[in-house]
Amino acid sequence: MFRYNVRGENIEVTEAIRDYVEKKVGKLERYFSDAPDATAHVNLKVYTEKTAKVEVTIPLPYLVLRAEETSPDLYASIDLVVDKLERQIRKFKTKINRKSREKGINAADAAVLFNNEADGNESDSELDIVRTKRLSLKPMDSEEAVLQMNMLGHNFFIFEDADTNGTSIVYRRKDGKYGLIETD
């Protein structure tokens, strides 16, 4: 059985909102044979530009379900987040089932967690790699890497950091700014 921790930022969490969240997120319990004892952390934010962001995190024994969605309507955001979480559960269930078939073993602990009636209709091909690229890393600094990324029209760029001689990645964040991941 899920427990709910619903909190709001710039919004008062009314009983109606709490009931709606519990009703919608509670539908995810049908995917589990024994509803895990987990806390669903729900964070509701309302911004000045009249958009609502909903973040849901559910830590489970074998995976952490997490999704966030922003839309003009709070209730629509809740619906969209629950849809995302359902897709994550189905994808994980499909992955467990495929691994058990490939290895010829019972998908031990994690598969027992899932209810077989709520079947995932996701195909195995969704997780297949359809393209492989090989690249040679050119030494450069992070500013040049951002320029290269923008010229290519990509959301990330892998490069060899000229200062550290390590592999690094620059990426475009959702807020339009840039991030840098450095490897050890």
TrEMBL record:
Residues 126-180 form the Sigma 54 modulation/S30EA ribosomal protein C-terminal domain. GO terms for molecular function: ribosomal small subunit binding. One of its GO terms (cellular component) is cytosolic small ribosomal subunit. GO terms for biological process: negative regulation of translational elongation. Keywords: Cytoplasm, Translation regulation. Its main location: cytoplasm. CDD domains: RaiA. It comes from the Bacteria. HAMAP family: HPF. Required for dimerization of active 70S ribosomes into 100S ribosomes in stationary phase; 100S ribosomes are translationally inactive and sometimes present during exponential growth. Belongs to the HPF/YfiA ribosome-associated protein family. Long HPF subfamily. Interacts with 100S ribosomes. This is Ribosome hibernation promoting factor. It comes from Enterococcus durans. The gene is raiA.
